Structures are given as C-alpha cells and as structure tokens.
Input
Amino acid sequence: MRRVCGRVFSFLASNGLACSLFLLLLLVTLLGTLHQVDHGLYAAQRRYFASFFLIHRAFGRVPVPLPGGYLLIVLLFVNVVCGGILRIRKDWARAGIVVCHGGVCALLAGAFLARAFSTSGRLTLYEGEAANAFESANKWEVVVGRSEATSSVLTFPV
Output
C-alpha cells in the first residue's frame, strides 16, 4: 500500500504531468477562444472553462473528449502542491522556488473561492440616486407582469 501511494504521489508531483496539463490548458484555451467567435463569451466559458469534461467536435463532426478547465486547474493545483511545495528540498537556496509555488497555489485557491462563492454584477448610480440591488452580468431572468406597481409578477430564470 505504501508503495502504491508513493507512486501516485510521484506521478502527481512530476514535471511531466505539469507539462501535459499546460499543453492541455493551451488546447482548451485555444478551442474555447475559437468557440467564442460563433457562440458568444458566456457559452464558451460554460462549455470549455467551467466544466470538468467536455466533448469537442473536431472539424464539426468527430467527437473528441477533453478535460474541462475546472479539472485541469484542480490537477494543476495538486501538482504544484505535491511537486513544488511538498517534494522539493527545503533549504535557503530554494526558498524563492517554494515562495513562488506557494504564490501560484494562493492564486489558484483564491480564483476557485471567488468563482464558487462570489456574486458579480454592476450597479449604475447617478447623482442623488440610491439603490439596493444590482444587475448580474450573466444571470438573466424574464419578468412578466402588468406594471411595476402591481404585486402579480411572474419571474423565470433563464
């Protein structure tokens, strides 16, 4: 059992895994950017970057399974923690490398927390105005009602 755990740790901490993840991130970023041209920003974000797995249609016909952006970033975080922080020798000559890898881990963890728990949008205020709600940038809803003064309003999230 200890031998298997050591091999798994060695694989997760390897430079080969890091290079493979960076190449896959390059491919997913390229395909997501090209997908954005025809389908829009939010559709490309949802399909390529906010998913664990996706099916890309190469040349419009051939289905190619690919890892999504979430899976690649999680694996990259694990790789940086295992290889750049846990496995590396800790001495003063390598202190900068450990600090840099720790900074990358902090950035990845912060991006994950912001994506998982934050709400983004905008609130336009003119001089003398006040408001208690904002417009979401990507969560839309359709509201059906007679007027703003009536209480009979139907709301449908899109």
In short: The mean pLDDT is 86.
